[in-house]
Amino acid sequence: MAIILDNENKVFTLQTDHSMYQMKADRYGVLLHTWFGKKGTPFDHSYLITYADRGFSGNPYDAENERTYSLDALPQEYSSFGSGDYRASSLKVRYPDGASSCELRYVKHELCQGKYSIPGLPAIYHTSENKAETLIVTLEDTRKHFYVHLYYGVMEDLDIITRSVRIENHSGQPIWLDNILSLCIDFLHGTYDMHTFYGRHTMERNHQRTAVHHGIQSIGSTRGMSSHHYNPFLILSDANTTETSGDCYGFSFLYSGDFIASAEFDTYNQTRILMGIHPDNFHYCLEPGAVFCSPEAAMAYSENGLEQLSHIFHKAYRNNLCRGKYKNTRRPVLLNSWEGVYFDFTGEKLLNMAKDAADMGIELFVMDDGWFGKRDNDVSGLGDWIVNEKKLGCTLGELSDRIHELGLQFGIWFEPECVSEDSELYRTHPDWALKIPGKSPTRSRYQLVLDFSREEVRTYIFNQMCQVLDSARVEYLKWDFNRSISDVYSADLPPERQGEVLHRFVLGLYDMLEKLSERYPDLLIEGCCGGGGRFDAGMLYYTPQIWTSDNTDAIERLTIQYGTSFGYPVSSMGAHVSQCPNEQTGRCTPINTRAIVAMSGSFGYELDVNHMSAEEKETVRRQISLFKAYYDLIQYGEYYRLTDPQKTKDYHCWQFTSPDKGEALLCAVALQIRPNGPGCWTKLRGLIPDAIYLVNGTEYPGDALMHAGIPLPKAKEEYESFQIHITKK
């Protein structure tokens, strides 16, 4: 059993293959958190809790004069504002009388076979109901106004536990949710580091490790999407945890909108982790009888360091979050037109690019921005999803047919959520854009954001997209979103409900993506948000790959893809070979290096292939052949971070190992050339210690390769790279 119930003592123990999570409803009905960590005997871990009379920490009324009992110091499973717990809370409710105090007490619990799902929201699933269980613990406000149902999904073989919260209003009056987070965990003791992933446009998900100190440390987004700036993935680790040793905990939020993730180290040296929808732009009215479901948060534990934690998330997200045809089907090697020609193209220009692409072995040609409406730059045209046949010189169907005749698949770019002021759509429906009445809106990239919280807006855009997709053979769609959301106001909602707009917007986004997937089940959708502005687990439920960053510089991508790998599999990372000098940095790198870095993701090219030399085209043919040969190893193997590109000086190295440990691929990029420099070695990981492996025809024991290492070839030019294929004898 993954979930063990001690009904007499109200102790609930959740177990995966290697972790254990436990909570207990105590004598006052308060649901206490008692354990999260290494799997062991399902013993009542509430013995770890200490009770003391703490000054200025009040006591619940039902505890009478028991001054050692205070919610301000006890580890709680789901904390609430106004309960006497003055730490950051996971739930804040406002009643019609203006009061916002909320005290939750245990009512009942229910055990269900299989993993729960959440209406309208992404969630991890399990293909076998026998290998997943759901625990629902119901809490009730002491004023008996509403119920809080805590959902726990336990997938034993995945080593993943998920959480979601369902609120039911039975008060007979509306109540307002000012804050509803999906996850709250209190750690009684320990000295921890907090790992976060910060960045900006064109430099996303830099790994940052800081000691958890007294007070609150948090990351988050109020931009309407998860953002380039902070990622909704957090790691808490022991101070001495490394890639291969030590305890660590991963927390991932399956949501693509505003979020907050925080760690509070209180004055009693306890650590509280919170994760959920950011409260700043959230104020949700729950009518009598209505229900609100929070997005899902996923948790995992590793006793063997960060590497094992990443492998847990990689496997779960590849196999139990991504869906559809391309979850396990080999994705085509693509050529995207954007950095090759930008807006400056005709149908003939695109066909000439496609001819050279087909000749080199590329399998999919993607027509990026500029094919619709009045769209020769980024000032106009968004929202008018009508094919510009004058620019293409033919219909979209005819262009698609000619590209397919070359042996290529065809893909197309959309930005459905935005609108240009210079567009027929905006002139006809200016109220469909998010704008505050009487205020000039903030522009970004000369565009506004459509109100996707409104079904009529989504229906219009969806029908336009379907007309385009139905007019041609389209196998791939790039879904882009190129600005942060501001001026949050919906013309369709009354003043008291404006705090619901951004969450309803995200639900509308998911609704659109779900409908597209249902109508076009064989369509490969790649998510994009100015690159990696919406690289989150929520999007992976609808788009199995996401454009990792608009920065295609291979050396910059080392850091971006390294940071991304902590929480997301390489199969999810869109990565392309682009031209040199690079558009973003002006750096020149060898084409083999650009390819080796891009192969560590969903592989493609983004440059004008008509300008490539014969030698470069032959190199591309070899690269594509090599990628196909290594595809299963790269996409489905275990990924190892051998070095940190933010710290290493000579080489950055990473490795892929097949699940059976019979094959590995070592990748290395020389970061600097030093005259008469010392030799460089790297230690491999994930091999069988007593097995014999072949490396360039020479035999080595697995333990030698892992403990002593392997010498790296000496680089002869700046940013030279190497791939070393290793096979078990």
Average residue-wise pLDDT: 97
Number of helices: 13
The share of residues in extended strands comes to 25-35%
Helical content class: 10-25%
Number of strands: 38
- Shape descriptor reads globular
Distance between the ends = 40 Å
The structural class is alpha+beta
Gyration radius, in Å: 27 Å
pLDDT < 50 runs, ≥5 residues = none
Largest sheet: 10 strands, antiparallel
Give short descriptive properties of this protein:
single chain, 729 residues, alpha+beta, 31% strand
Task: Outline the secondary-structure elements.
Layout: E1 3-6, E2 11-15, E3 19-25, E4 31-38, E5 91-94, E6 104-113, E7 132-141, E8 146-155, E9 160-169, E10 175-187, E11 192-200, E12 203-211, E13 215-221, E14 233-238, E15 248-253, E16 259-265, E17 271-276, E18 284-286, E19 291-293, E20 297-302, H1 305-320, E21 334-336, H2 338-341, H3 347-360, E22 364-367, H4 389-392, H5 396-405, E23 409-414, E24 418-420, H6 424-428, E25 447-449, H7 455-470, E26 476-479, H8 501-519, E27 524-527, H9 537-540, E28 545-547, H10 554-564, E29 573-578, H11 591-599, E30 602-606, H12 614-636, E31 638-641, E32 651-657, E33 663-670, E34 681-682, E35 692-695, E36 698-701, H13 702-707, E37 710-711, E38 721-728
Parallel strand pairs: 21-22, 21-30, 22-23, 23-26, 26-27, 27-28, 28-29, 29-30
Antiparallel strand pairs: 1-2, 2-3, 3-4, 5-10, 6-7, 7-8, 8-9, 9-19, 9-20, 10-17, 10-18, 11-12, 11-14, 13-16, 14-15, 15-20, 16-17, 24-25, 31-32, 32-33, 33-38, 34-37, 35-36, 35-38
